[in-house]
Amino acid sequence: MSAIASNLQAVRARIAEAAIAAGRRPEEVELLAVSKTWPVDRVIEAARAGQRAFGENYVQEGVAKALATVDLDLTWHFIGPLQSNKTRLVAENFAWVHSIERFKIAERLSAQRPPAFPALQVCVQVNVSGETSKSGCAAEEALSLCRAVSVLPRLRLRGLMAIPEATDDACAQRAAFGRLRSIYNQLRADGLPLDTLSMGMSHDLEAAVAEGATIVRVGTAIFGERRNA
Ligand SMILES: *Cc1c(COP(=O)(O)O)cnc(C)c1O
């Protein structure tokens, strides 16, 4: 078995164990393989091992890999910071965007999504770590941003995403993911039909699954340490 295949198996086992410990079914948690910085042959290797969903956070790099793998029927998720001048490429080449922080970006994505494509699936990124993090909208803005995004015609708002400040403290990890979960619950109680919590990476996926993650975004534990990160 290739290294990537055995890493994938190990990550899937971690997800399953964490889900069962939390009284959840392992199938409730989708594994997104974050292939940023890795060449497309690693993506193909992971696809051969059964992986279908891939995440990228640099636009051109992600588009190149998506185009190089069109015949493999993979699903591409954009998970990085998005500037206005790159929205068209994302709208035309990705199935999902996890990193909506501003209405203007969502509006452009909706306008630029090709009519023949299914709606672009999106998550609003929320800052759950306060001043230590610069990415994501403020928790207090999440409701109004989600309401506005949810009515854009070519987008389908699926849920929330967060990248909490990295910590080895399992309690602090749970607390940050718990904050995202509670915002998600409030939005659902408010009538938004959300079904996705994108949270958890290589070092903290167990805490994220315990707090209700439905997508975990895992790079290092599948592909290895990134050399130029
Ligand atoms: C790189 C990245 C990941 C994966 O991080 P690992 O620690 O390598 O698992 C997840 N989410 C986002 C937004 C990333 O940029």
Percentage of residues in helical conformation: 40-55%
Quaternary organisation: single chain
Mass-distribution shape: globular
Mean model confidence by pLDDT: 96
> What separation lies between the terminal Cα atoms?
27 Å
Query: Could you say which structural class the secondary elements and strand pairing correspond to?
Result: alpha/beta
Task: Provide the low-confidence segments as ranges.
Answer: none
Biggest pleated sheet: 9 strands, parallel
Small molecules bound: pyridoxal-5'-phosphate
Give the ordered list of helices and strands. Answer: HEHEHEHEHEEHEHEHEH
Gyration radius from CA atoms, angstroms: 17 Å
Please report the total strand number as a whole number: 9
Number of helices: 9
Strand content: 15-25%
